[in-house]
C-alpha cells in the first residue's frame, strides 16, 4: 500500500487525460459500430451455429464469432464511461471486468486468425505433409481452441483479480492494482504485443505462400489466371488488409503507452496526453474489427457464403454455378 500511495500523483498525471475526442467523439463512433456489429455478428452466429463443426476451419471461425460477441458486449460500458455517467462505480467495473474482457476477446480472436492461416497454409500449400492431415482433425482443432482460450485467460484474468485496492478519491485504473497487479499488467501487455507480432508475421508468410501457390496452379492448368487470380488474391489479402488496418496502429503505440504507466517512467504530462489520445484512437480501430470480421467470413468461407445465400432464394438461384476443384479450395481461404 505504501508503494501505491507514493506513486498515485505520478500516475494521475498520466491517466487523467480525457479530452473532447474521448468524451464526445468516441462515444458516437462506438455507438455506431456497436449497432452495426450487433446485426452482423448476430447474423454470423445464427449461420455458424446451425452447421456442424465438420472441419477445423469451421471450429476456428465459430470461436472467432464467440470472441467477437464477447468483445461487442464491452462496447456499451465503454460508451457510458466515455460520457462520464455511472460515477466511480462504473469506472471500477470497466477497469476490473469489461476492459479485461475486451483485451481477452481481442487477442483470442487474433490467435484464431493465426490458426486459420496456418491450417489453410498446410491444406493448400503443404497438402501432402503429415502436418496437414494432423491439423485437419476436428479433435486437434478443438484442443487448440481450448488451449487458446486457456492460455489467454491465464494471462488476462489476473488483471481483474489483482485490481483489488481500495477505490481512490482521484480514480485511475492503475492505482486500483496491487504491486503484483501492476507488474502482471505490464507482463500481460508485453505478452499480448508479442502474440500480435508473431501472428502478423505468420499470416504474411502463410497468405503470401498461398497466393504464390494459387498463381502457379492456375498457370499450370492453363486457365485464365488474370481474372480468377485477381479475385483469389483479393480474397487472400482482404484478411491481411483488415488485420493491418485494425490492429497494427494500436500495437505500434501500445508499448510506449504501457511504459508511460510505469512509476518513475519520466514521461511529461503532455506526452502522456498525446499517448493516451493516440491509444484511444487506435483502440477504436481494433474495435472496428468486430464489424469487419463477418464480411471476411462471407468472402473467405464458402460454407458461410452458401448458407447465407440459401436464406435468399432469388440470389441463390442466380449464383448457382458449377465451380472447379481449384476454385473450391480457394473459396475457403
N-end to C-end Cα span: 52 Å
Secondary-structure element series: HHHHHHHHHHHHHH
And the CATH topology? Rhopdopsin 7-helix transmembrane proteins
Overall tally of domains: 1
| Largest sheet composition | none
- Helical content class: over 70%
Reported CATH architecture: Up-down Bundle
Report low-confidence residues grouped into runs of 5 or more: 1-11, 320-331
Output mean pLDDT: 80
State the CATH superfamily name.
Rhodopsin 7-helix transmembrane proteins
Description:
The protein has helices at 2-15, 20-48, 56-73, 75-83, 87-124, 130-135, 138-161, 173-176, 179-220, 225-260, 269-300, 302-310, 313-318, 325-331. The protein is an all-alpha fold and 333 residues long. The protein has one domain (2-331): Rhopdopsin 7-helix transmembrane proteins. Helix 2 (20-48) runs parallel beside helix 11. The termini are far apart. The model is unreliable at 1-11 and 320-331 (pLDDT under 50).
Amino acid at each position: 500500500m505504501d508503494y501505491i500511495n507514493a506513486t498515485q500523483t505520478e500516475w494521475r498525471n498520466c491517466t487523467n487525460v480525457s479530452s473532447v475526442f474521448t468524451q464526445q467523439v468516441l462515444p458516437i463512433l462506438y455507438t455506431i459500430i456497436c449497432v452495426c456489429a450487433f446485426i452482423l455478428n448476430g447474423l454470423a452466429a445464427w449461420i455458424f451455429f446451425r452447421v456442424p463443426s465438420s472441419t477445423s476451419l469451421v471450429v476456428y471461425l465459430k470461436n472467432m464469432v464467440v470472441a467477437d460477441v464477447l468483445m461487442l458486449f464491452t462496447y456499451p460500458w465503454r460508451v457510458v464511461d466515455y460520457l462520464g455517467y455511472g460515477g466511480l462505480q462504473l469506472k471500477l467495473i470497466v477497469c476490473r471486468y469489461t476492459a479485461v474482457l475486451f483485451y481477452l476477446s481481442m487477442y483470442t480472436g487474433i490467435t484464431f486468425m493465426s490458426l486459420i492461416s496456418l491450417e489453410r497454409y498446410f491444406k493448400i500449400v503443404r497438402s501432402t505433409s503429415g502436418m496437414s492431415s494432423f491439423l485437419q482433425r476436428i479433435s486437434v482443432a478443438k484442443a487448440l481452441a481450448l488451449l487458446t482460450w486457456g492460455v489467454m485467460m491465464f494471462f488476462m484474468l489476473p488483471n481483474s483479480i489483482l485490481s483489488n485496492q481500495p477505490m481512490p478519491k482521484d480514480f485511475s485504473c492503475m492505482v486500483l492494482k496491487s504491486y503484483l497487479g501492476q507488474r502482471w499488467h505490464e507482463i500481460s501487455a508485453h505478452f499480448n504485443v508479442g502474440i500480435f507480432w508473431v501472428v502478423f508475421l505468420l499470416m504474411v508468410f502463410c497468405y503470401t505462400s498461398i497466393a504464390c501457390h494459387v498463381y502457379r496452379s492456375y498457370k499450370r492448368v492453363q486457365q485464365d489466371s488474370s481474372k480468377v487470380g485477381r479475385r483469389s488474391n483479393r480474397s487472400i489479402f482482404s484478411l491481411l488488409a483488415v488485420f493491418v488496418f485494425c490492429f497494427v496502429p494500436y500495437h505500434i503505440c501500445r508499448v510506449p503507452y504501457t511504459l508511460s504507466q510505469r512509476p518513475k517512467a519520466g514521461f511529461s504530462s503532455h506526452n502522456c496526453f498525446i499517448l493516451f489520445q493516440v491509444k484511444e484512437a487506435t483502440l477504436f480501430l481494433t474495435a472496428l474489427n468486430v464489424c469487419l470480421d463477418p464480411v471476411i467470413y462471407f468472402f473467405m468461407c464458402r460454407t458461410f457464403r452458401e448458407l447465407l445465400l440459401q436464406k435468399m432464394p432469388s440470389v441463390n438461384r442466380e449464383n448457382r454455378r458449377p465451380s472447379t476443384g481449384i476454385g473450391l479450395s480457394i473459396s475457403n481461404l
